[in-house]
Structures are given as C-alpha cells and as structure tokens.
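Q: A reviewer asked whether we had any structural model of the full assembly, not just the individual parts. We don't, so I'm hoping you can provide one. Inputs are below.
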Amino acid sequence: MGAAPAPRDVTSYGMGLAAPLALFFLVFFVAPLLQLLWLSLHNDTAGLHWGLGQYLHFLTDPFSLGVLGSTLLLGAEVTAVCLVLGFPIAWLYQRVGPKLQTVIILIVLLPLLTSVVVRTFAWIVILGRQGIINATLQSLGIIDTPLKLLYTQFGVVIALAQVQMPLMTLPLITALGRIDPNLDDASCSLGAGSWRTFFRIVLPLSLPGVIAGCTLTYAAAITAFITQSLIGGGQMLFMPMYLYQQASTLQNWPFAAAISIIFLLAVLAVVSVFTTLGRLSRGYGGA
Amino acid sequence: MAEAQGGRSLVVDAVTHRYPSGALAVENINLDVKGGEIIALLGPSGCGKTTLLRIIAGFIAQTQGRIIIGDDIVDSLPPNKRAVGIVFQNYALFPHLSISENVAYGLAARGIDKATRQREAQRLLELVQLPGMAERLPRQLSGGQQQRVALARALAIKPSVLLLDEPFAALDKNLRLDMQIEVKRLQRVSGITTLIVTHDQEEALSMADRVAVLSHGKLEQFGSPSDVYDRPQTLFVNTFVGSTNRMPGVVVSADRTAAKVRLDAGAEIIARPAGGALSEGGRVTVCIRPEHLQFVGDETGFAGVVGMSLPLGATVVHEVTTADGSGVKVSQARIGETRALENGAAVRLAPLAPSLANAFPATL
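A: Here is a predicted structure for the entire assembly that you could use as a starting point for your response.
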C-alpha cells in the first residue's frame, strides 16, 4: 500500500452507507405506496372485498376520465407557456453583462422565495372581476363588462406558469451556458441569419435543458394543488382536488387510492416520454 | 482545381475602436492587404489583434474608420453578409452535426441544394485530406483533424478573406508545423487573402508574406518578415520579435543613415537610427541581436567578462558581463570545433555590421 492512498472509486464504498436513506424511503415512501396499492384493490370502502372495481369504475366513468384528461392537458399548456416565455429569458441571460445577469436571476428566483399561497392570492387580486386587469381595461374604456379571468382554464394556466417558471428557466440557463459562444459567431460568419442559427445550432444544443425544464414544470404543474384549486375555483376540477374530495370529503379511500395510482402511472408515462427524448438528444452533448 | 480567384484585397482604413468604457482597443490602424496575400497580425495578448479580427469579420462595429474588401466598403454589412471565413482558435465546430454537415453548413445557409452541398463537402474534405470522415462527429476527431474540418468549413463559402484566430495555439509542436505547412498549401491552392492572428513570432515570420506588429492597440510596423526582423522600426518590434540585447548609450553624432553612439558599456559603435532621426547628446537604446555580436581581437569593441557558456546544439550562447555591469548574450554558430570560452575570460565584443545595431531614442 502506498503512502498516499489513491482516492477510492465511489462505487467501491459499502452499500451500508446508503442504508439510513434507504430505510427512510422504505418506511415513508415505499410502504405507504404499497399500502395505497393494497387499498386500491378493494371494491368496498370497508376494505373487505378484493377486486379491480375501483379501477374499472374510474376507467369507465366519463367524468373521472375527463378530470384526468384536463389535468394532463393543463400540464401540457403550462409547460408550453413556460417554455415559450422562459427560453427568451434564458437566452437573454447568456447575452447580457454580469450586473444584468444578477438582476435576471433574482427575478427568476423571486417566485421561489415567496409562498405559493401568497403568489396565488396575488393572482386572484390580478385576475378577479374587480382585479387589476379588469379595472385597467375598464378605465381605458376597452371593455364594458369585466372579463371572466378567474376560475377559468386560462387563469389557471397563467398563474401556474408564473409559479413554475423557475423550474423551466434555471435548467435552460444552464444548458444555454454550456454552448460555446463561438458557435454563434461561426454560424453567423458562414452566412446564417439569426433564425437559422437559433433553429440549427442553439435549439438542438439546448435540448437537454429543454427536456429537463419540461419534465420539472410538467410534474409540478399537474400536482399543484393550491394554485389549481384557488384559481380554478369550484368549476374547474383537476386530479389533486378530485383525489382530495374522494379521500377527505367522501371518505372513499379505495377509490382515492385507485385515482392516485392511475394518476401516478399517467405522470410516469409522460415523464418517461420526456426522458426518452432526453436520452436521444444526449448525442448532442459535449462541445 | 478552379479555385484560385486571385483573391480580393483587404483595406483597413484608419480604424479606431473604443470600448464602451472609453478605453482604446485599437487606434488608427491602416493595413493594405493585396489579394492573395498572407498577413500575420502579431502581438502580445491584449494588443488589440483579436479586436481587429472581429472588426474585419463584422462582429464588432468600429468607432471610426473603414473596412474595404475588394471594391466594397463592408462596414454596414452584418457578419453573415460579408463572406469572410473564420477559423476559430477552438475551431468552434458544431458538435451535434456530422463533419460533412459542418462543412456544408455555409452552403445550406445560402440555399444550395443538398446534392451539390454533399458533393462540395466531399471535395473540400478531400482537399484537407480527410476523406472518409464525413459521417463522424467532431468529438471523434483529433485536434489536427478538427482544425482541417474548420478550414474546410470556412473555405466552403468561398470567402473573400480568410481569418485565422490563433489557429495553431491548441496543437502540440510537431502537429503545429504540419498544420502550418498545410494551411500555407491550402492558401496557395485557393489564393484566398488570409489574415492570421498570432502571438507566436516564429509562426508569423514563417507563414506570412507580411507581418503587422501590434502593441497596445497601435500598429508598430507592417512589413515583410525580414523587414520586421532585420529593420525594426520601433524598440517594441525589436524586442518582441526575436531576442535582442538592449544597451543604453549617448549619441555622439548622427545623420539620417548612421549614428555614432557611446555605449555605457564603453566603446563607441556605429548604429542605424531605426526609429527616425536622433539628436546629438540624446540618450538612446541600442539593440543588437545575440547572433549579430562577435568577439573581436583588437580594441574596437567593448570589454566584458564571460560568465557562462551554453552549448545549444547548432549555436553556443555566451553570457557576457560588460563594464557597466549589465549582461549581454552572444550567440556563435558552431562551425568546426569551437573553442569553449573559459569562465571569467576577458573578451571584447563588437556588432557584425553597423546596420545590425539599431538605435532607438531612449524612453523614460
């Protein structure tokens, strides 16, 4: 053995070191999940009769399928809005001086420093019948009667997009920062205009960040219980609230458990599509 | 290959650039590059040579002056309309595109159809001696190969002017010489007016038809490699290009072609007034290269004591301490069996010829 021991390969450490965390996950994550699965496989609320009745009920009930569909659609809409609005911010961040970079990062992070409840109430103030938008439009004489913004899909998407924006912008900033700025100049000197450079060089090379951002935003948007419920109000029902009603109000635990499992599988399916795309785009890495 | 178009001329006309902070990046640069010429912009880092390259390419809009390519003033043109090819120091190949897609990129931007593009890319890859690499990705290539691809990509757009930014800095020494020969060959074949930015004087002297030496944003000298090396116009050029001994002295008498200088080290020598006229009684710095000093037997030169002798293969360098305490280096070619000089031996030194001692007014 040498005098100075070489640093050990991390994989050579005993798996025992991971035991505390593994135990924690086992007790507080895997066990409840299994319990949820066990619960969902019962046809009655008392949990006496085994069966797939809850799943059949959900999958044959147009209302339940509608809630699932609108939740997944909501996630897609929020993700799209975050991508379209977040990309220019991340792009700008890489092209301004260090002072402006600090300002941009502060603005991007600001939503994370405020409670979701506070941010959501702020949106109620902005979107309400007597809210800032309606008041301004009315005083300018553009509209006569207040627009219905609160308790609409549009309102939920806008509020969620603002709330989840950092999850999109931060991975994009990282991904764009990894691109050699000379590539821009090289593309330009070869005769390409800004749009060609963007679509042929910048966008493909930032794909890992786009996919990471989309995955995070999507997962966060569809499970955002507070914002969905407060901005969506009574008329708009999404999976988290549906689940909550079944479990807490109706005490239908087996059905709530089945909803959870179905929701979980639906989210996993969408996320795995994203990660597959991510793996395909990994060939672009390096540089 | 019907590629030699004679090359277009490039004129840098009184170009000055100020940073937003007000600091001067380059000041009143004038360069007149003939079509098909290779020019080296030589200077230490921070001398403004890269700024000048970016001005010519169109990435920076200069504060004053004009850039003229051929008969066209290109100042109002963005970089993508200037038809200036650039090879970047780190090559800046598109990592997600194959080698042939990289080479054909500029052609695609010009809307040339796919079949022609592929044929052109193939031809250029053969030109840079990389056939069979078309489908690989840049990271699968070595540094030298990547540089060939960068060259092919820049040549594909048939540029009026080719700009190379420190093109050999990232290559190891053996490969560097190969690539320098390769670039010179390609430049001859294509006849494209070429500008090489470098801080490496050997590279500048060996590759360029003419060398522009820059320091602190100013053009110190623009001339042939032998002009720059043998007839430097400023003290900076004399010390930056090649090595030299700086010997302080006072002008005894001077006219436009020769000056008699009394060196602080003793002895009077005849020197060339390199930086313009000298005034009698003024202090000067005389620059004599180590290979331009010789040992003399008579009383003509200045006296010194040999400190150390370093046999460097083809030459021997002697470190000599002069009467005023300063050290000078003398380089002697090793012809036959050179007698080794003993440590502490008293010698006398003189320049080989008056034209090889350059006198510059002393700066404070």
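A: Points you may want to mention in the reply: DSSP finds twelve helices and no strands in chain A. The radius of gyration of chain A is 24 Å.
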